[in-house]
Model the fold of this input.
Amino acid sequence: MPGSHHFHFKPFKPQAATEADPSLHAHKKGDARHSHSKQVANQNLLLIALVLTLGFSGIEGAAAYFANSLALISDAGHMVTDAAALGLALLAQMISRRPPSAKHSFGFGRAEALAAFVNSIVMLGLVVWIVVEAISRFYDPHKVDGLTVTVVAAIGLLMNIVVAWVLSRDKKSVNTRAALVHVMGDLLGSIAALVAGVVIQLTGWMPIDAILSILVSLLILKSTVSILHESYHFLMEGVPLHIDYLQVGKDLRSVPGVLAVHDLHVWEMTPSFPALIGHIEIADIMEWPAIMSRINEMLLEKHGIDHVTLQPEEVGEISDDDEKSANTFHNGDTFYVQCSSGENQHRMAYHAWGNPNNPKVLICVHGLTRRGSDFKTLAQAMCKDYYVVCPDVVGRGDSDRLTNPMQYAVPQYVADMAELVKKLGVNQVDWFGTSMGGLIGMVYASMPNSPIRRMLINDVGPRIEPDAIKRLGSYVGQPFSFANRADALSRLNQICATFGEHTPEEWEIYNGPMLVQRDGMWIMHYDPNISVPFASVNPIMAKAGEMAMWHAFKQIHIPMLIVRGGDSDLLSAATVAEMCKVNPYARSIEIPHVGHAPAFVKAEQIALAKEFFS
Done:
């Protein structure tokens, strides 16, 4: 198995196929908490119901023949099929209690679902027959003995009430519930037959017999289809109906220590016992026991899954289905890199497009309140030539949030990007940085032995204009909560109006991922605490930071393209001119009719980036 650890065992003499080694089925610490031998309901319930139903069905069948009543015949037919259904259900429960064997390591719990499926099919056939027969009687009326129908139907009603009460005591088994549907059909049939008998006695109106038969058949059809769907879904190893597969994957990725999840499968081994298998990518195999313990606790509490089989894959292990597979081509797939923040650990998410084996890597880093999805359109255009990696800077998107908000600053972001480059295993990268992402890139590129080969700086520089700082402070970290997504998107589009004019479709692609739903409200994806360091800056600190950025910018000795929005309030034309003056490696271009910052979703802007990085 890819990424697994291999051990060698001495040859052994295999047991005979008919012998089961009990140790193979035994559960030890860390295994699922249930036994494969499913604890089924009391079989006596089904046995009692079977005896009562089978005994009365013969009596009702004879009475129906002499009374010539379709309603009574349909009720008797129901009871005959009920008897068969109950017998099949009883047999299935007996089989399901057999212990696991050398040929059936999971046991025989699926026998119940199989019985439920067969019972539902039979019930559908019976419904069709009754409807067809009832319709034919409208054209060829039959005389019905109302008194016989009334008496027998009344006795049958009492009998069915007793049987239904017996079966209702076991509500967990889909098999028993399938049998109960049969009995409820009988109960309704008895009521219909009783009503038909009374009406015929009082009025002599024979069509009531056929009408009520059709009505009962349609009433039980819904329950039958529901059981059929549930048993079919189970037999096809579908995800349990009460479990959200996508949410399970998301919750697994949120467990501390988990970097990525793949090859995930959720199904039910036996009814009401969900199971999960998958591969978990982690940073250190020595941490696996603690991570697995957290995973088990989360899966049991949030999803009711206690049979969990996961294979850990330490970062750096290469396998046939690993991220570095030669045949892999990512299209926005999400991965994680483990980073440090002081004594704590956090994960930074990144989204990738293209072939991870491509040595040409383009890292695209977003602005202050944005996330990696900003570059989806650009990445799709560049991924044939580059492996495009778009991180969610910590505190944004799918990345973790920091416990200390004062660490939401460029030094932490640069350290995280260095870990990302280390994980990618490349010596050189190209850099596309928008606003804050440009500042991160400038600091990273100024460092000794920086891996950045060339850099596009999108509408940011060492000096940030006071008006832009005031504008950012008006919404960063401020309350943002809407009950309606359309209202939230409209407000966000207003905030981002400086990015340029876009179609509704472009705004959806660009701003849609910024919104997440929590507790029924639509809010921003980022940690509001990213505003804490931003708000704490005073004029003296701002001037010191500007001087440090100018010093860093002068140390960069790689090709740089500075892109300015023609109407930008953050990067002035004077600052761009100064940047090009103090660093001969920099050149600039201005995009008219755009504020801060060009979104690079327009074809002409993407063409500009492709030309620079080519």
Remarks:
- The longest strand covers residues 258-270.
- The radius of gyration is 35 Å.
